[in-house]
Amino acid sequence: MLERLAPPPETADMAPARARPWRLLVLGCLALAGLSLLWPSVPTYDPWAWIIWGREIAHLDLVTKTGPSWKPLPVIFTTPFSLAGDDGAPLLWLVVARAGGILAFAMAFRLGKRLAGPVAGLIAAGSLILADEFIRNFFRGNSEGILVAVCLWAIERHLDGRRRDAFLLGLAAALLRPEVWPFIALYGLYLIAADWHAKNRLPVKTTILVIGGGLALGILWFVPEYLGSGDFLRAAARARKPNPDSAAFAAHPFIEVFNRSASVLTPPVYIGGLLAFCAALYAFIKRREDGLILAMAAIGTVLMIAVAGMTQAGFAGNLRYIALPAALVCVLAGAGWVWLVRSTAARWGVIAASALALAIAAASAPFVIEDINELDLAGQRIKAEADLYGTVPEAIKAGGGEAKLKSCGTVYTGAFQTQAVAWYMHLHEMDSEIFAFPPGTTIAPSFSSLSRDPRFPTIAKTRKWVIGSSCAAAK
């Protein structure tokens, strides 16, 4: 099927096809991400861990025994970012994460436009913008925006005949999510086979690229984890300890993933995606069209099954893990609705097609309005979280400073605040604990029960935090 999806791959004897411009696009995304720092800009739980690990690698003191699963790609950025200090490093990572999310919108538009024109591109990008939790996730520093961007970009580079670029972008995606590994492995084998067929001999450069990429993938996933925790598979073990509200604890986790993820997109998006699939399947059977849409639908389906299967096996199954298949559906939705309107115009005329387009827009409007309201709520939640995590330095200062707070013993905080406290207190993640026993200091959110623990009398308060110390009780 792949031979029908793009021009022949480049070889040593032929110039690569002219690819779509990307440098100015990436710079523009970075610029917009930089401007976004004018809004609340504080990482959430997982990104704090990547930022901490970057600092620890820079100091040759990596510890990954606690916290979320190891993820290589973010740490490639956060290690040099750590040189920017306590305030600069988190902001630099947020710029990268947000630029990835913005690039995902751009790539959704470009792929949708490629499939069915600019209107399809606008539907694709708009659907992704309105997808539940997508903006909220990458705005707080999660990596799903980057994942979607590099995967959609990889598809575009493949279609442009720049398949080595596509492979490298796929490797970047594989450094973010393990369910991408089988796809990049198969694509690497395809590259070798295609070049071998074109040259009638083993393509040495391509083989080195694929094997070297695979080795790098394994090293970056497993070696740092072993050096930091003593366990090559610590990340997998951690991923099988999900939060209490995880789909993994449902009676039927596999089915529960699909139940929960249904709300990520609205019915008009799913219907548009289904229309695109049905039209492409009919055209493929009739041999009138290539299989690009079918391939994208197949990839999205396999990814969903992979996430659901991993959840059935005990992994977390968080909704953000289905961002990539959801993005593929958004792209297909744009193509599906445009196909329907064009088909109507071809059969019944422009007036009928215009009436249909207006009817589709009117039927979709309530869903769009609801999603816009959800974006407003997401913005409020982003601000509330930023207000909490972003005021940790204020709490440390109010408590007498880092040295004083460490002098009493272990530092304790709430379950989801351990990373932020560890970062600003210059601790390993494992040294910022949640089960409090004297002696020690508590840096606890004012809404938590830990902030009222009588074993740690209050020594300072801020707008969001209560600082307690067992040493104060001993005096």
Would you kindly provide a written description of the structure presented here, covering whatever features stand out?
By secondary structure, the chain is mostly helical. The protein has 2 domains: 2-242 and 359-385, no CATH class; 392-474, no CATH class. 65% of the residues lie in helices and 4% in strands. The protein is built from 20 helices and 5 strands. It has helices at 23-35, 45-58, 72-81, 85-116, 118-130, 134-139, 144-159, 163-174, 181-199, 204-229, 234-239, 253-261, 267-285, 292-312, 323-348, 350-389, 392-398, 402-407, 418-424, 470-474; strands at residues 410-412, 432-433, 440-445, 458-461, 465-469. Strands 2-1-3-5-4 form a 5-stranded mixed beta sheet. Helix 15 (323-348) packs antiparallel against helix 16. 43% of the residues are buried. The model is unreliable at 1-15 (pLDDT under 50).
